[in-house]
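Lecture notes, unit on binding sites. The following record was shown on slide 14. It pairs a sequence with zinc ion.
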Amino acid sequence: MRYLLAILLALAAAAEAQAQSDFKVTLLGTASPSPRPNRFGPSTLVEAGDQKLLFDAGRGVPIRMWQIKVPMGKLDALFITHFHSDHVSGVPDLWLTGWLGPEFGRRAAPFRVIGPIGTKALMENIEKAYAADIKIRLEDEKLPPAGIAVAPEEFDRDGVVYERNGVKVTAFEVDHGPGIKPAYGYRVDYKGRSVVISGDTRYNENVIKYGTGSDLLIHEVGSARKELMVNLFAQRIIAHHTTPSEAGQVFAKAKPKLAVYTHIVLLSSATIPEPTLDDVVAETRTTYSGPLEVGEDLMAFEVGDTVTVKRP
Ligand SMILES: [Zn+2]
Ligand SMILES: [Zn+2]
């Protein structure tokens, strides 16, 4: 009887540990540049232990972070995939608003930004653009100077770009088209589990290489109806992204425990509507039959023995 009780307690503890995985991913924004009220700019929050890492900072990132009560001042680092504005237009807001006194801000240490070559220039120029605000708030609100300092770090090849207390982040080059360089994806490893974020890319073998065996593979996708693909502009945009059937091939080869779409590019014209999300899934199913979620803003994933989806 006593043994039975011990076993039951152990099982309950294991279930509890599973339910409260300390490796969590939240999609803060799942759009492309198109301004949609229900999908903000691309941004993904990864929480591993007590560390909070943000991947890209698109439009509306401070709003989404505060919706889930994660103070901007508590971020350990921001990682940038590439310099398209939809991925960085939220950076000044995150940096400046995260410094303010209320609970949503309160950054007291330098803002750590890690990205490909160009990250330092981006941050230097943002600092110049907002110099007047910073000067005013330093004098008027007496905010801590350290909290508005910037600590950018750059890399120029695949490799580990962050490692702290068992959390490792590896950057890997992707292919967003010949004219859009640099462009990177990231893999986060923690306690033997991994989350991979494709960044913006066409079908790319490097995503398969780094995504193989991952628990969660978060991938971009771009789609337009056949009728629209006679349009040169649509052809050019779609050529920079991964179509649903191509993404399905990536998932089929990498075999993540769960594949998730974010950065959902749906093209349309005045006369041709955008594809539906059901269309996107149906096309993915022509090449991939495994676990798949179409991401939504604030959809979250607990990465434990299994990957659990928490719908917003
Ligand atoms: Zn993009
Ligand atoms: Zn892009």
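Take-home: The chain has a mean pLDDT of 95.
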